[in-house]
Amino acid sequence: LPVDRLEGKIRFEKVGFRYGTASPNASDALRDVDLTIPAGQTVAFVGETGAGKSTLVKLVARFYDPTSGAVMVDGRDVRDLDPTGYRRRLGVVPQESYLFAGTVRDAIAYGRPDATDAEVEAAARAVGAHDMIARLPSGYLHPIAERGRNLSAGQRQLIALARAELVDPDILLLDEATAALDLATESLVNEATDRLAKRRTTLVVAHRLTTAARADRVVVLDGGRVVEDGTHAELLAAGGRYTELWRSYTGEPVGATPGP
C-alpha cells in the first residue's frame, strides 16, 4: 500500500519476537505485547538491558518483523505498506548516530540531500542546534571526521536530532544515547528532543529515567513483557517496578519531584 502521510496511531497486537540468532534455550525478546499508542503521544519505554525496549522500536522501523502478532500503523499492518514510502515518514535517531565524513550541513541533509541551506538551518534552529553549529570554526561547513570523531557526544546528538527534524517525520523513533553528557549539554539535548517530539507520535527508548518522566506515558518492560503502563506520576504512586527503577536511578525517595 502506498504511503504519503501517516496520522501516527500505532498498535502492537499480541506481538511476539525472537531473534534468529538466539540460542534454543533463550527466551523470546518480546512476548504477547498489546499496546495502543494514539497519534501525537510521546511514549517512553523503560526497563533493564534486554527487557525488549529497543526491539519494540525496531519493529516499528521495520528493521525486523514480528515472529507472531502484528504491528499496525493507522490501522494497517506495516508489512502491507510500501517500505520506501513508509520509511520516509519515520524519523529514526539511533543510540549512536552514524555521521559520515563531510560537513555539518551534509550530515543534517543526509535524509534529504535536496534540502536548501535555508531548510537545513531552519531544522537546526527548530531543535536548538543552530547556536552550537554557529560556534564551530566553519559553522555549517565545518568538516566532520568519519563517525563524527572530532565532535563531542552532545554535538553529535544535536546534529542527529536536526537531521530527523529536516525529514519532518510523522513518527519519531528515538533510542536515547547512553553517552554521559555534562548537565548543560544534557539540558540542550533534552530540549531538542522535546521540540522534535512535539506534534508527532514519538517512541523513546529511555536510558535516563528523567527522559521517561517528561514523556506523556511510560511503558515498563521486563523479560519481553509489558509489566506497567501509565504516566510517570501514576507509576510512582503504584509503587511497582517503575518505582524501584526510579529509586535506584535517582537515589531519591519516591515522593521527590523529578528533575527537568
Automatic annotation (TrEMBL):
SMART domains, alphabetized: AAA
Protein name as catalogued: ATP-binding cassette domain-containing protein
GO CC term (a single one): plasma membrane
Keyword Glycoprotein: no
Top-level taxon of origin: Bacteria
Protein's cellular compartments: Cell membrane
The family this protein is said to belong to: Belongs to the ABC transporter superfamily. Lipid exporter (TC 3.A.1.106) family.
Gene Ontology molecular-function annotations: ATP binding; ATP hydrolysis activity; ATPase-coupled lipid transmembrane transporter activity
Membrane topology field: Multi-pass membrane protein
Stored InterPro entries: AAA+_ATPase, ABC_transporter-like_ATP-bd, P-loop_NTPase, Type_1_exporter
Keyword set, alphabetical order: ATP-binding, Cell membrane, Membrane, Nucleotide-binding, Transmembrane, Transmembrane helix, Transport
Domain ABC transporter: 10-248
